[in-house]
């Protein structure tokens, strides 16, 4: 079995696409799926996007969630590899969920709209990847349009990303004059052929780059590309695989997703360059993906298709070993065993029962609250994986119930929504009004809607005077107790009872920090 586990781990590639809305993530995802023959799913990607656009009306939310469960993880086979593609929530309103999805991948594919360069959401997602040294591949999209000059783009990327950009392909022209892309390693050029329904990869290939005939065929763009390439060759740092794996270099590809042009090159690079699942840190020890025993971590919880039943799917990233159907699992947090009778994979639009899974794979476990965000599952060893981040909220609201008889339902609902990671819930030490914390306004709307429709509670979400939260810890328990007592008017406990200080203005926080040098203030809490 050990040999089989090693083999299976070696051929896994688990990644996410990160981009700013409208850069072409959905389009690229569909084309990637085409290459693996998973055309069926491609339709659902589009459907999901359509549903997403319809969500200004929150009555649509259940429907949307249903579709998004079906396509938030896509597994496909390409060449000898099993590829797990994780969707990052696409709301303009940035959500914490996205950060957590990025903890479950081994590489990221960054899509840049060549006309817009690096945009705000790309930048934020990238920061998360950089913090974890996740290797990143870059796809510069929409070369069939009038876009930025490729040298300027490369420069912008390097400045913005703080990474060395290594072009693997280079465009000849753009917009109407887009002739194709040079492959810098193979010394060949793939000629651009427009068409939305193309399978891709069947374009004309030019191998005699010295032939003067190309100059008349591609016009000015040809000479210009040659000139640019000369500069790139002189100035660019040679690509080194180790530097890419360390997150210091990113290979860059040019293309047009909608025309399925330049997409196969990226998929090939993903298979060839992106790493298989690696070791994962737990509080107890480092876990190797090829260990015999199964372990995994819950990185996302999503309310299921049928909100009336309140069942939820826990998305588990397998970290080691061999998962088999019918297996008994231990939840480290509670110490309890459970044997989930349905465990699903995301191989096609229909969710299928999982027969087996290996490190890098994502399995979905429907449950009624047994599993929380950040939980570790094992065959018995008490392991707790680290690294699942919770971010200090940037917005706060008080939440009260319109009908006081429903207080219990409100608390139960918020408890569950908090466990799901939909929102952060705080219990202030002073007073009995619960507080909600979020990083995006949309989270409040979602919570209000779900409280009403899933828990039958009309909640009043009201302004709150706090603007900044920090989790507090100290090496000395006594000091922490002293701090909490002295600040009890602005202390609260979160869902896992971690003490949190809330302040109205950032300068106030600085003053508190100066007065309490032995207290540590954290903007990020890792699940432990
Ligand atoms: P997402 O928001 O990142 O998922 O972006 P989409 O994949 O939905 O693409 C946004 C828009 O850009 C859509 O109208 C696409 O048709 C269009 N688009 C995507 N790729 C290309 C491309 O290569 N060229 C052009 N001209 N348009 C594209």
Automatic annotation (TrEMBL):
Localization per Swiss-Prot or TrEMBL: Cytoplasm
A GO molecular-function annotation: guanosine tetraphosphate binding
Entries under CDD domains matching the protein: RF3 (cd04169)
Record-linked InterPro entries: EF-G-like_DII, EFG_III/V, G_TR_CS, P-loop_NTPase, PrfC, RF3_C, RF3_dom_3_sf, RF3_GTP-bd
Segment forming the signal sequence: none
Name this protein carries in UniProt: Peptide chain release factor 3
Predominant subcellular localization, coarse grouping: cytoplasm
Protein family according to the UniProt entry: Belongs to the TRAFAC class translation factor GTPase superfamily. Classic translation factor GTPase family. PrfC subfamily.
GO cellular component: cytosol
Keyword terms: Cytoplasm, GTP-binding, Nucleotide-binding, Protein biosynthesis
One GO BP: regulation of translational termination
Binding site for GTP: 19-26, 87-91, 141-144
Annotated function: Increases the formation of ribosomal termination complexes and stimulates activities of RF-1 and RF-2. It binds guanine nucleotides and has strong preference for UGA stop codons. It may interact directly with the ribosome. The stimulation of RF-1 and RF-2 is significantly reduced by GTP and GDP, but not by GMP.
The encoding gene: prfC
The UniProt record lists the keyword Metal-binding: no
Domain called Tr-type G: residue spans: 10-278
